[in-house]
Structure formats: C-alpha cells, structure tokens
Specification:
Blueprint: E1 9-12, H1 22-37, E2 41-44, H2 58-69, H3 92-104, E3 108-111, H4 115-125, H5 151-159, E4 165-168, E5 175-180, E6 184-189, E7 197-199, H6 207-217, E8 222-226, H7 233-243, E9 251-255, E10 258-259, H8 269-275, E11 284-285, E12 292-293, H9 296-299, H10 303-311, H11 326-332, E13 343-344, H12 347-360, H13 367-376, H14 384-394, H15 403-412, H16 429-444, H17 450-464, H18 468-480, H19 488-495, H20 497-512
Helix pairs in contact: 1-11, 6-7, 10-12, 14-15, 16-17, 16-20, 17-19, 18-20
The structure holds one RNA strand of 75 nucleotides.
RNA sequence: GGCCGGUUCGUCUAUCGGCUAGGACAUCUCCCUUUCACGGAGGAAAGACGGGUUCGAUUCCCGUACCGGCUACCA
C-alpha cells in the first residue's frame, strides 16, 4: 500500500462553514495516524471555493479544534509549507488552465445554461422512475454548451464574457475501476455519472477539480475522505487520468460514516441537540444567529479520551485493548484494520472513555481546567497542592470534568445546602451528645490522619453504645453536605481540624433548630 | 427510481474455513464499601435470509432482504 520511494503525504481538506463535526475529527485522526505511522506529513488545506458559504471565524475554529486534539498539521495556512497557498480561494488562478486544458483535448466543454434553464430541464425530465435527471451524455445534447452550439456561437459567447461553466464530458461507455484501501476494487460505469461542473461561473473550481489539482500540486500520496464521496470518485479518477496520469494518483480510502445512535442516517448536529450530547469538537457559535452549540471540550471531555473514543469507531488493533495514547495509536495504526461498515455513535461509551482517562491520567493533567470550573462556580482554590490532593482523592467518581464541581467543591467551600433531611428523622439526643464529645475528642487527637480519626470515632461509639453505622451518615452530611464523596475520614483529614469541627458544629445547630 | 457501499449480542467490535462465536459499553445479580463511586465475580444477549463451494462455513461465491451514501455552478 505504501510506496517506499515516496514520502507519505496526506491532507485534511475541510470547508470552513461551521462547527467541526465528530466525523471530521475522525477523518483528521486517521489521516494523521496514517501519516505519522509512515513517517509522513499531514497537510491541512482549506476548501473555501464556495464563496456563498463563507462563515467568519470558521477557519480559526478548525485550527483551535485540531490544536486541542493534539493533531497539529505539518503544513497549513498558518503553519506554512512548500506547497502553499493552502487556502483554495488563494489558488483560484491556478485552476482555470487545467479546466481549459481539458476543454482543449475534448475531455470537458463549456456550458452556458443558466440556473433557471437547468432547473427547467430537471423539471421537464423528472419522472417517477427518474426523480433526478442528470446533465449527462444524453441530456447534454439538448443543452446550451460548446458541444451543441457550434464553434462560432461559442466563440462569440466567450468573447462577450457570457456566464459559463466548464463541465467534464463523461465517456459514454467506459468502466472506471480503482482500488480503495478499505473497500478493495470498486467499479463504476461512466454513463451513470453526470457531467459534473469543474469550473464555476465565478471562476472558482468545484471540489471535483480542486481536489485533483491540489492533491497533485501538493504531492498527496494517500487521500482519505468520508464514504459519502465514493459516488463522485469516478469523476476524480477520470480527472487524474486526463490531467496527470493514473500513476500519479494518490491511493484512495473512503472511510465509513459515523451514524446516528438511534436508527437511520449519518450523525448530524441535530441528533446531538435532540438527544443531549455534543457533536462538535468544541463550542461553536454561529456568527449569524449567535447561537452556540456545545462541543466535547466544553462538555468536559479530555482530548485524550475524545480521540481515543473516535479512533475506536471504525478501527481496532486486533487485541482487546481499548485505551490508547496518541503515540500508541501512531505506532499501531494500519489501514488494514479499518472497517468498511459505518458505526453508530454511542454517547454512553464516549463517556466511559472519558472516565477511564480521568482515572488513568495524573490529576495534574487536568487540574487547570478543573480549577476554572470551580472558580466559575464561585469556589476559589488558593492552594495548588491541596487541589491536586483532592482531585486524586475524588477522580474515580468523575466521568466528565464538571463532575469535579460537586465531587471536589465542598473541600474548598463550606457547604451551605446541607441535606439535613437525610438525618433529621432519626436524630435524637444521644447523637447530639455523641457529636458534642466527638468534637472534643477530635480536638485532642494526637494526629490528624484518617486512621487516627476513625479509631477515635469508633472508640467513642463504643463508649456511647451507638452503632457506628448510625453515625457515619450524619458525619458525612456534616462534612460533605450530601450523600456522596470519598471515605468520610479521608474527607476530614483533608479538611483539617479547624474546618472539620466548624462544619460539625454548624450542622449540629441546623439539626437542633 | 438509478448507481455505489454496508450487514456478528441493544451499541462498538474479535474471528482472516475448524466456534463450546471472545472482549468492551449499557443492562441485571452478587461481593467489597456503614455514602456515592472504584474494584471484583457472575448472568442474559449476536452471525439478516436462501442457495451454492467445501469433510467443514460467521468466514469464500451468487441471489434476496434490510440499512446507508450519492444523485447541486455544496463540500
């Protein structure tokens, strides 16, 4: 699959029109892993040939997402490189000559049909059996193009700058075959594909022309894209054949799609909104509507977990391992183990990956983000060391980063909302007495270690002839505020003597009152 | 409609002709834990269907069904 003589070069070519979708990130990932596995280069090219779909900030957003994921391009509009510019809008002038070359050698032609005429044609030929008539080898005979108009008329229109596009002239009867890295040999009949527009009336290339020209100019060796592109592959194959030669063509790989969790179709932003999970990598704010769509990052995912979860949607290393670092993935990734079939997205499993990563990583890794989360809730954390200790203590209980607010917040801010309802019904004077004495005993404790505190507590329960079980929950409520958190004596240890006693005293008053 | 692709537990998947079909998520039961988790043990749960090929098919071939993608001067 990999030609030893050629340096592997891959590209991700998004169009900057909005939030970066899960599937897009996975395409980046597979590109990146393949390139790095083979010691190659990963290029990011911006496909902004559709000026009507320009969205401010979308390009910068893509870079932020890749940056967050740790999938840094070797070449891009911001990273530079020897094959720039990396924005197709800035390469506009380079495409026309290839399109003209195709016209000159008879593989393409000028078409002067207006959008209205096109629509009229489609309506006229639309039938039940053929709901979407194609501008193909039959219909082009009835349209206004350089095949039907006669040389003089064409020359006149051209000299008058009449609006026109350049369309590929699909062969009437030819079988187009290529070998996909994932699917093996795939064949198409040329008559089934329409005469795609190559160069638009505004002079911009369509994706079809641009992808071929730029992949050639940028010396791309392997071209990965979503499966939705498979039907237009024959156009690209033909363009390669006409323009640069099939021996120059990159190896294609059409990646399986990421599907909706509940049934039919590829996963969309709508599904996330509908079912309450993110679809974009990071928050995306539509500049027109100012509406923000939450991303995986802001939902509290770790980038390590995010890419780990994504890579497992369509690839595995053949073992029962599911947790991989980026570096491990680079080592192990091969196209041979990429699946053909689409994978349903499962948010529960995605969360599981994040939970695993929170547990495995040292807390220092995500400490700054947790600090931000806490501070956003008005919980200030003066001491880094203390925060570190707390995070290690509670991380087993956190699936998403915001879970730390509940699990760690009470260590730094005395709980005000205390679940006294959980203890009040069984409260009595004996317990009152017990806690009164326990505060004294704690105050005199020789050391403030959880073992010591637990021993002191147990001894006192024996003296008072109360089962420890009846007092553990009240103590927890006093220190934590609710029925959650690490072992209650561990909590006391971290809280320190003064704060522990203060909280006991406070709740005691609440319960008595 | 046409073309192309896909099809193993509910979900993600292992299996490259020998299978008592393995793992993970989710789910259920139990243990651990005088909270919530973590952890541990166990249960239930799958080869779309029909034909071939073969000593033997989940695996190879062909049909059918179902699902998906595409069918724009969007990518």
């Amino acid at each position: 699959m990999v030609n030893e003589n050629k340096k592997v070069r891959v590209r991700f070519a998004p169009s900057p029109t909005g939030g970066l979708h899960l599937g897009g990130v996975r395409t980046v990932l597979f590109n990146y892993l393949f390139a790095k596995h083979h010691g190659g280069e990963f290029v990011l090219r911006i496909e902004d040939t559709d000026q009507s779909r320009f969205v401010a900030g979308a390009e910068e957003y893509i870079f932020d997402c890749l940056n967050w994921c740790g999938l840094t391009p070797d070449e891009s509009p911001v990273h530079g490189g020897a094959y720039g510019p990396y924005r197709q809008s800035e390469r506009k002038e380079s495409y026309r000559k290839y399109a003209e070359q195709l016209v000159a050698d008879g593989s393409a032609y000028y078409a002067f049909d207006t959008p209205a005429e096109l629509e009229e044609m489609r309506n006229r030929f639309k039938t039940a059996e053929s709901p979407s008539p194609q501008y193909n080898y039959i219909l082009r005979e009835q349209m206004r193009n350089s095949l039907t108009l006669g040389e003089e008329e064409v020359a006149r229109l051209l000299s008058e700058d009449a609006a026109h596009v350049i369309r590929i002239k699909m062969p009437t009867d030819e079988t187009i075959v290529f070998t996909d890295m994932i699917r093996g040999e795939v064949a198409f009949h040329s008559s089934q594909t329409d005469d795609k527009v190559l160069l638009k009336a505004d002079g911009m290339p369509t994706y079809h022309l641009a992808v071929v020209v730029d992949d050639y100019l940028m010396k791309i060796t392997h071209a990965f894209r979503g499966e939705e592109w498979l039907p237009s592959a024959p156009v690209h194959i033909l363009l390669w054949k006409y323009l640069f030669g099939l021996d120059q063509m990159p190896q294609w790989a059409h990646l399986p799609l990421i599907l909706k969790p509940d049934g039919n179709g590829k996963l969309s932003k709508r599904d996330g909104d509908r079912m309450g999970f993110p679809v974009f990598a990071m928050n995306w704010t539509d500049p027109k509507t100012t509406e923000t769509t939450q991303g995986f990052r802001e939902r509290g995912f770790l980038p390590e977990a995010f890419i780990n979860m994504l890579v497992m949607l369509g690839w595995n290393d053949g073992t029962e391992n599911e947790i991989f670092t980026l570096q491990k993935l680079v080592d192990k990734f091969t196209m041979e183990r990429v699946h053909k079939g689409g994978a349903r997205f499962d948010y529960e499993k995605a969360k599981w990956f994040n939970h695993e990563w929170i547990k495995h990583l040292p807390a220092s890794h995500y400490q700054p983000r947790v600090r931000q989360l806490l501070e956003a809730e008005g919980i200030s954390v003066p001491d880094d060391g203390q925060l570190q200790k707390v995070l290690e203590l509670v991380k087993d209980r956190c699936t998403l980063l915001p879970d730390f607010v509940q699990q760690a917040g009470f260590f730094f801010k005395t709980p005000t909302n205390i679940d006294t309802a959980a203890i009040k019904p069984k409260w009595d004077e004996k317990k009152n007495l017990f806690f009164g004495e326990m505060m004294l005993a704690f105050d005199l404790a020789p050391s403030w270690q959880h073992e010591e505190l637990e021993r002191t507590f147990k001894e006192l329960t024996a003296v008072h002839e109360i089962k420890p079980g009846e007092l553990m929950l009240p103590l927890r409520i006093m220190l934590v505020g609710g029925k959650f958190g690490p072992g209650v004596f561990h909590v006391a240890e971290v809280l320190g003597k003064e704060e522990t006693i203060k909280r006991i005293k406070f709740t005691l008053q609440l319960v008595q009152g």
